[in-house]
Amino acid sequence: MRFIVMVKATKDSEAGALPDQKLLADMGKYNEELVKAGVMLAGEGLHPSSKGARVRFSGSKRTVIDGPFAETKELVAGFWLFQCKSLAEAIEWVKRCPNPMPNQESEIEIRQVFESEDFGAEFTPELREQERRIGEQIARNAGR
In this structure, are residues 8 and 45 in contact, taking their beta carbons and an 8 Å threshold? Predict the structure, then answer.
């Protein structure tokens, strides 16, 4: 099972505050543990929403909304992609994480990623083949 593990934003992360050397070192050590255990598939920090945009869909209309976005508690400051046997295992790994926002309360959300088998018969053999090809292309692109 794959899980996206999202570090929720805070006022400091949305203000562009960067982690100090200690947190960078602690997170580096934690990430090494995740990789050695075969859990971490990807992980990155994100710039504040002031450097981002949203695209709102309404029928065929697309509206671009520039950041920053008001509800900090709803934003994501960073993420990992974990490969775990269960949600319980993902939770145990997250509990070992250094506090991503030192000296303040912070939150990490864990959500399971859909796998092709989750979609049942609606995910036809042709769609499965398309997904396989796309996955191969992504892997090739990542090697660039």
Answer: no
| Tokens of residue 81, six digits | 């992609």
Residues 6+ apart with CB under 8 A from 122: none
Q: Report yes or no: 48 and 61 within 8 Å, Cβ to Cβ.
A: no
CA 75 to chain CA centroid, Å, is 11
CB atoms within 10 A of CB 53: 10
- pTM confidence score: 0.90
Count the alpha carbons within 13 Å of 30 in the hemisphere toward its beta carbon: 18
Dihedral angle, C-alpha 80, 86, 90, 91, nearest 10 °: 140
Which pLDDT tens digit goes with each residue over 22-49? 999 999 999 999 999 999 999 999 999 9
